[in-house]
Amino acid sequence: LPRPTAPQPTPPKAPPPSPPTAGVLRRPSTGDDDGRPRPPRPSRALRAQAPPDASARLIGLVGSLDRTPRVLVAPSKITTLKIDSRGGFLLSQIDGMVTFDDLIELSMLPRDETLNLLCDLFDAGVITV
């Protein structure tokens, strides 16, 4: 009678390749450091939307965001204005070619914040269309 043979062991499988971020420490996505869940963050698109009142206020003042603002204040008087660095940056971008929509894009600030700054500059008589 033939002798039964023992089953041959199967070779071990290679581990799957590591993702490029293997070993990178990450903050847990489901909770804070103390394990409590974080509130959901609004999406980028939602954060980029200005409240209707800020947009409507500027459109009411200038007519359209496609219009080009111009500076009413003499360059020598700009340093005496009570505006912060954000308003100063927006003011420095007004060159007779850029539109209100362009300024909103250039500012790198939240849309509603930029709209409110532009309204403040308009209300103060610093810019016009």
Strand-helix topology:
Blueprint: H1 44-48, H2 52-62, E1 70-71, H3 75-78, H4 85-93, H5 100-107, H6 111-123, E2 127-128
Antiparallel strand pairs: 1-2
Helix pairs in contact: 2-6, 4-6, 5-6
Please characterize this protein's 3D structure.
- The protein is mainly alpha-helical and 129 residues long.
- Helices cover 39% and strands 3% of the residues.
- The protein is built from six helices and two strands; from the N terminus they run H-H-E-H-H-H-H-E.
- Strands 1-2 form a two-stranded antiparallel ribbon.
- Helix 2 (52-62) runs parallel beside helix 6, helix 4 crosses helix 6 and helix 5 (100-107) crosses helix 6 (111-123).
- The radius of gyration is 29 Å and the shape is rod-shaped.
Comma- or semicolon-separated keywords:
single chain, about 130 residues, mainly alpha, two-stranded antiparallel ribbon, 6 helices, about 5% strand, rod-shaped
* Order of adjacent strands in the largest pleated sheet: 1-2
Q: How many DSSP helices?
A: 6
**Proportion of beta-strand residues:** under 5%
Biggest beta sheet summary: 2 strands, antiparallel
Q: Looking at the structure, what is the overall shape?
A: rod-shaped
- Secondary structure class reads mainly alpha
H and E string: HHEHHHHE
User: Which stretches are low in confidence, meaning pLDDT under 50 for 5 or more residues running?
Assistant: 42-47
Q: How many strands appear in the DSSP assignment?
A: 2
**Separation of termini?**
105 Å
What is the C-alpha radius of gyration, as a whole number of Å? Answer: 29 Å
